[in-house]
Amino acid sequence: MPVKKSQVVKGKFALFITTQIAQLFLTLSFTIIRITQIPIKNTVGIAPNLTYYAAGLLVFTLFNFFFFTEFYKTAYKIGKAFIKGMVPALLIAVLTETISHIPKLAWLNSLNKTDLRLQLPIFLFALIFFIAGNLLAFKISKERFEKVDL
Fold first, then answer.
1. Model confidence, pTM
2. What's one Pfam family the UniProt record gives for this protein (predicted)?
């Protein structure tokens, strides 16, 4: 191959992570519109707050980790890798939606300044988890792909 295997893995990670971060930034504009122009309480789904963005980072991290590490075992069977990535990502999404509607955890679904301060550590944890999880997934994927005989 004219390109190193490690460069192939790096390129795929760069594409996925760039797309995922762009998606989060794109939703920010809609979040601002929602908060400033539609002050009605959100009855369906989680409010566009720090918990929402933390959940997004966790979903992306888990998908990337399980998808890439599985895919680069063989560099084939992309469907199997996709399902392995989707299952934990879906579980986090469902869990986030569910717990944000439990009355004692209502602060997770709030846009109040006091509640946003409580959500900040969750978001920061998710951001660190996103960075560390993707770095680990990249390292594992790169090592696995080096062993694959194309």
1. 0.89
2. ABC2_membrane_5
Counted residue by residue, the chain has a size of 150
Q: Tens of pLDDT along 13-59?
A: 999 999 999 999 999 888 888 888 877 776 677 888 999 999 999 99
Q: Which helix (H) or strand (E) holds 133?
A: helix 113-147
Q: What are the contacts of 27-36 at 24+ separation with CB within 8 A?
A: 27/56, 35/111
CA distance 73 to 63: 16
The three-state secondary structure class of 64 is helix
* Burial status of residue 96 (CB atoms within 10 A of its CB: 0-12, 13-18, 19 or more): buried
Residues 109-149 have pLDDT tens digits of: 888 889 999 999 999 999 999 999 999 999 999 999 998 87
Question: What is the DSSP annotation of 85-123?
Answer: HHHHHHHHHHHHHHHTTSGGGGGGG---HHHHHHHHHHH
Residue with tokens 């192939």: 8
Cβ pair 30, 48 in contact under 8 A: yes
- Residue 148 has phi, psi (to 5 degrees) of -75, 130
Residue 40 CA to residue 34 CA, distance in Å, equals 9
